[in-house]
Amino acid sequence: MVLVSGSGTNLQALLDASADEAFGARVVAVGADRDGIEGLTRAERADVPTFVQKVGDHATREKWDEALTAQIAEFKPDLVVSAGFMKILGPRVLGSFSVVNTHPALLPAFQGAHAVREALSYGVRVTGCTVHLVDAGVDTGPVIAQEAVAVQDGDDEESLHERIKTVERRLLVEIVGRMARDGWTVSGRTVRLGRAASRS
Ligand code: GAR
């Protein structure tokens, strides 16, 4: 299942990929932390069930974490993909499911919600995207895959983010497909994909 907060183009890439059975995964549900976003519309268009759990509808962040966990559990997902989900997940969700996140920078550089803006204002010449497992920190979990994207003269946040997202969508689809088809193992901070990895 996929968690979104915005336009949902990464979600769309997963929906498109899962149209082919050989992909090995399908999106069983889409959850959001807010209404009225394009990500939810994309799910509805694909006939995928949706739900919204807003932090503000719960007395505490812990209650939100509990409600989100219960709602995700209804769909019994093998994997939860955070694809532009702009909330820090709580300990219950993280203790109950394997969660993968996609981030628009080469972690550990530029963690947090404004990665592209911060990379630009730092003046890096190369940035990129990271697919990683989510742990209790903010963008600190074990890295699964990364790809570099060059910053071009004259880039603004929007143009750079769009180029990153083109790479990011392809990388996310590739990694989620491989995880679904072949499994993965984690040893310390090292994530290995593949059947051999699952056996070792
Ligand atoms: C993606 O670039 C994703 O990496 C980023 O939001 C974008 C969502 O795009 N996530 C973060 O910045 C999380 N810190 P999308 O809604 O079109 O898939």
UniProtKB/TrEMBL annotation:
<dbReference type="GO" id="GO:0006189">
    <property type="term" value="P:'de novo' IMP biosynthetic process"/>
</dbReference>
<comment type="similarity">
    <text>Belongs to the GART family.</text>
</comment>
<feature type="binding site">
    <location>
        <position position="61"/>
    </location>
    <ligand>
        <name>(6R)-10-formyltetrahydrofolate</name>
    </ligand>
</feature>
<feature type="active site" description="Proton donor">
    <location>
        <position position="103"/>
    </location>
</feature>
<feature type="binding site">
    <location>
        <begin position="86"/>
        <end position="89"/>
    </location>
    <ligand>
        <name>(6R)-10-formyltetrahydrofolate</name>
    </ligand>
</feature>
<protein>
    <recommendedName>
        <fullName>Phosphoribosylglycinamide formyltransferase</fullName>
        <ecNumber>2.1.2.2</ecNumber>
    </recommendedName>
</protein>
<dbReference type="Pfam" id="PF00551">
    <property type="entry name" value="Formyl_trans_N"/>
</dbReference>
<dbReference type="InterPro" id="IPR004607">
    <property type="entry name" value="GART"/>
</dbReference>
<feature type="domain" description="Formyl transferase N-terminal">
    <location>
        <begin position="2"/>
        <end position="175"/>
    </location>
</feature>
<keyword id="KW-0808">Transferase</keyword>
<feature type="site" description="Raises pKa of active site His">
    <location>
        <position position="139"/>
    </location>
</feature>
<feature type="binding site">
    <location>
        <position position="101"/>
    </location>
    <ligand>
        <name>(6R)-10-formyltetrahydrofolate</name>
    </ligand>
</feature>
<dbReference type="InterPro" id="IPR036477">
    <property type="entry name" value="Formyl_transf_N_sf"/>
</dbReference>
<comment type="function">
    <text>Catalyzes the transfer of a formyl group from 10-formyltetrahydrofolate to 5-phospho-ribosyl-glycinamide (GAR), producing 5-phospho-ribosyl-N-formylglycinamide (FGAR) and tetrahydrofolate.</text>
</comment>
<comment type="pathway">
    <text>Purine metabolism; IMP biosynthesis via de novo pathway; N(2)-formyl-N(1)-(5-phospho-D-ribosyl)glycinamide from N(1)-(5-phospho-D-ribosyl)glycinamide (10-formyl THF route): step 1/1.</text>
</comment>
<dbReference type="GO" id="GO:0004644">
    <property type="term" value="F:phosphoribosylglycinamide formyltransferase activity"/>
</dbReference>
<dbReference type="InterPro" id="IPR002376">
    <property type="entry name" value="Formyl_transf_N"/>
</dbReference>
<dbReference type="GO" id="GO:0005829">
    <property type="term" value="C:cytosol"/>
</dbReference>
<feature type="binding site">
    <location>
        <begin position="8"/>
        <end position="10"/>
    </location>
    <ligand>
        <name>N(1)-(5-phospho-beta-D-ribosyl)glycinamide</name>
    </ligand>
</feature>
<keyword id="KW-0658">Purine biosynthesis</keyword>
<dbReference type="InterPro" id="IPR001555">
    <property type="entry name" value="GART_AS"/>
</dbReference>
